[in-house]
Design brief:
Order of helices and strands: EEEEHEEEEEEEEEEEEEEE
Radius of gyration: 23 Å
Distance between the termini: 35 Å
Strand order of the largest sheet: 1-2-3-4-5-6-7-8-9-10-13-14-15-16-17
Shape: globular
Strand content: over 45%
Number of helices: 1
Number of strands: 19
Length: 279
């Protein structure tokens, strides 16, 4: 059951309730409340609180609950966003989809976007700083990303962007990223630097040119080439073997060397990691 009501001028509040009673299994009930509140023209406060209950589930209210709050100020010249999300280790919505359990996420972004008073070519500069911090329910830091971005928007709709990110990830267990290629457990530090020139949609042939370098777990990555839709070329080599290659990558697979050296070449997904730069 879902109920929603309009409040103020552009805001809403709502409640949701689900109940699952399978034959031969335990019942599961979920109750939730959410609000989307707009103040003035550029200030938004959104959030939800939900709670699950099943016989024998145990745990405290916080362990059974999940909540999220977000503050967003999105004026043309300045922007600030802060988000806090918590998912308890016993939160179990059996009607629905839960990507991850038992974590707390804090995310913040600050933006400064000045427009030149008199410029025949430049429409806007954008400077962004982001920090994403995720910890497990036991307080152990699982991942962290710090990212700084500069984006230049031209009057002909072309855009040029450059970003640099530093990442930390703690793997509690090793996992296999490709056949015969395993990523070790423990702490990993990596980062990347990337620049993209995006041609405006008014051009006869649109797309982007990309240059990037960095690391991902134990890989050294290099990326050079044009990009139209999901097609691009990437050159990469890894630290242990220093093998190198240039391949076309049409949104499918990239052939390269294994992370830990030895053996033949392996194929790994060639999709971009994390958020798309300049998006």
């Amino acid at each position: 059951m879902r109920l929603r009501r309009d409040v103020l001028r552009r805001s809403t509040v709502g409640v949701i309730a689900t109940h699952r009673a399978p034959e031969g299994g335990a019942d599961n009930t979920v109750l939730g409340f959410d609000a989307n509140l707009w103040f003035f023209q550029n200030v938004a406060v959104t959030g939800f609180l939900s709670y699950t209950d099943s016989p024998g589930l145990g745990g405290t209210f916080r362990e059974r609950a999940s909540y999220r709050g977000e503050f967003d100020y999105s004026a043309d010249r300045y922007g600030v966003t802060f988000e806090h999300l918590m998912v308890g280790r016993r939160f179990d919505p059996q009607i629905g989809f839960l990507r991850r359990q038992a974590f707390t996420r804090n995310y913040g972004q600050a933006r400064f976007s000045p427009r030149p008073a008199q410029s025949a070519r430049i429409r806007k500069h954008t400077f962004e700083l982001e920090l994403d911090h995720i910890a497990g329910s036991d307080g152990v830091l699982e991942s962290r990303e710090a990212k700084v971005t500069y984006r230049l928007e031209l009057n002909n709709s072309d855009q040029w962007a450059v970003d640099y990110s530093r990442n930390y990830e703690f793997l509690r267990e090793p996992f296999e990223i490709a056949s015969g290629t395993r990523i070790r457990s423990g702490a990993h530090h990596f980062g990347d630097l990337r620049t993209v020139y995006q041609f405006g949609p008014q051009r006869r042939v649109s797309g982007a040119a990309t240059i990037g370098l960095g690391t991902l777990y134990d890989w050294h990555n290099r990326e050079v080439g044009p990009r139209r839709s999901t097609a691009r070329c990437r050159w990469c080599h890894n630290r242990p073997s220093s093998r190198a290659l240039i391949v076309p990558c049409l949104g499918g697979w990239l052939f390269g060397s294994p992370v830990a050296g030895g053996g033949g070449s392996q194929r790994v997904p060639c999709g971009e990691r994390g958020r798309r730069m300049g998006g």
